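Feature request, filed as a ticket because there's no other form

It would be nice if the structure record came with a short human-readable summary line next to the C-alpha cells. Right now we just get the raw output. Example of a typical job, pasted below so the devs can see what we mean:
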Amino acid sequence: MSTAERLDAAFAALADPTRRAILLRLVDGEATVNELAEPFSISQPAISRHLKVLEG
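Raw output as currently delivered:
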C-alpha cells in the first residue's frame, strides 16, 4: 500500500465524528466496548465496527 493510500484510509476512518469521539475517549485510557458505547445511542456491535475501521 502506498503512502497516499495509507493516508486516504486514515483520513476516511477519521472522517466519521463517532470515530473521532471514540479516539478522544481512548486518549484518557483503555475502555471496554460497553464504556465506549455509553455516550452514544448506538449498539455495541456498531462500536465494534467503528473500532475495526480505526484499527485499519
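Something like this underneath would help us a lot:
Residues 14 and 27 are 15 Å apart (CA to CA).
The chain is about 70% helix and 0% strand.
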